[in-house]
Amino acid sequence: MESFIIEVINNYGYIGVCLLIAIENIFPPIPSEIILTFGGFMTKYSTMNIWGVIIAATIGSIIGSIILYSLGRLLNADKLERLFDSRLGKMLHLKKEDVKKAESWFGKHGSKAVFLCRFVPIVRSLISIPAGMAKMELGSFMVLTLVGTFIWNIVLVYLGRFAGDTWETAVSYIDAYSMVVIIIILIIILLFGFVTLRKKFSK
Fold it and tell me: Computed from CA positions of residues 58, 21, 43, 159, in that sequence, does the dihedral angle turn out positive or negative?
């Protein structure tokens, strides 16, 4: 994967960065850390410049986010409610009322969630789906996505620039950060799921 990313950026420059980041937003396992830090590194040894890489990456982020947001609009609350009310949903002790609660929560805290999640690996891409499902106003979604991804891109591109030939070492540190964040999120999800199921079964 790493060699493929490097080859694309080497051959296609800004367009390569834009396309890779757009794909990374749709398929989160593709590491934006490598794309952005290598892009920053390339600004020292090619005609690419820092702000060109940042802008290209930000455009790619917006493209990918809009695609996932649109997917979320297709997976609306009504369809989820039908799923929760189905035999499978009842077997899993899911209630369609939970969809309304989640929708209500996103209505209150969605803006903060969309912005802050742009700094969390994997979740930074997936947050676009619930934003679409909640029918978050597209203008607000675009602004929050633009600002959040712009900051993320600036940090990683400059990190790659400063790291220079040791940009891969910088990626390893970012990977460690990503792993810690993902573990924390998984623990929170598991605890929440355990508490929720325990309450439902106790009733």
Answer: positive
Q: What is residue 51's three-state secondary structure?
A: helix
Structure tokens at 41: 């590194």
Amino acid at 120: V
Q: In angstroms, how far is the first alpha carbon of the chain from the final one?
A: 48
Percent of the chain with pLDDT over 70: 62
CA angle in degrees (0–180, nearest 5) for 159-142-14:
45
* The residue type at 57: A
Whether the per-residue pLDDT at 62 is higher than 90: the answer is: yes
**What DSSP letter does each residue of 146-179 carry, written as one string?**
HHHHHHHHHHHHHHHHHHGGGHHHHHHHHHHHHH
Structure-model confidence comparison of residues 13 and 91, the more confident one: 13
Residues 142, 145, 151, 157, CA torsion sign: negative
- What is the structure's pLDDT at 110? 77
